[in-house]
Specification:
Layout lengths: L1 H26 L10 H4 L28 H4 L1 H6 L1 H5 L4 H8 L25 H11 L1 H8 L9 H4 L1
């Protein structure tokens, strides 16, 4: 019985030591406040992994590559790596879509970048009931309650 208790305590201490060591390794890395400019680098990198994967840094930069569906799936990266995003984007860039005071107008944002999937391009007004019925939370995330949101209340209020 005593051997099991001692073994359990040693195992717990080993786990705590490993967790502290891992936390120490992760917290020692601090990204630059501002990413070097194209002039500093010689050319503008196309994707983060062009340079960062080769350096063996503690950040999984492959998760920050802006793929075609980045606009739809960047929530986790933005929440966990705000400092990484801030190296290239100012807060005002994020606020273009995420500010709560000014309504998002995706039909006006990035009009020339038609390869980016945006929920509200083209004739979305006529198609939105389908998405709204399939996943109402996808509307609530940006617009809030359809019975009180400024853009929704005209029809849904």
């Amino acid at each position: 019985m005593a051997k099991k208790s001692i073994l359990s305590i040693l195992t717990l201490l080993a786990i705590l030591f490993l967790m502290a060591a891992c936390a120490g390794l992760q917290s020692s890395y601090a990204p630059l406040a501002v990413h070097p400019s194209a002039d500093d680098l010689g050319e503008q990198p196309k994707v983060c992994t062009d340079c960062h994967d080769a350096r063996g840094e503690h950040v999984a930069y492959e998760n920050y590559v802006h793929t075609a569906d980045w606009g739809l799936n960047h929530r986790a990266q933005a929440n966990q790596g705000e400092a990484i995003c801030a190296m290239c984007h100012q807060t005002s860039f994020c606020n273009d879509c995420h500010a709560t005071g000014i309504e998002l107008k995706p039909s006006l944002k990035n009009q020339a970048e038609t390869y980016r999937p945006m929920q509200h391009r083209g004739d979305y007004l006529s198609r939105h009931p389908i998405d709204g019925r399939m996943d109402p939370t996808s509307c609530f995330r940006c617009h809030g309650n359809p019975k009180s949101a400024e853009t929704c209340v005209r029809c849904h209020g």
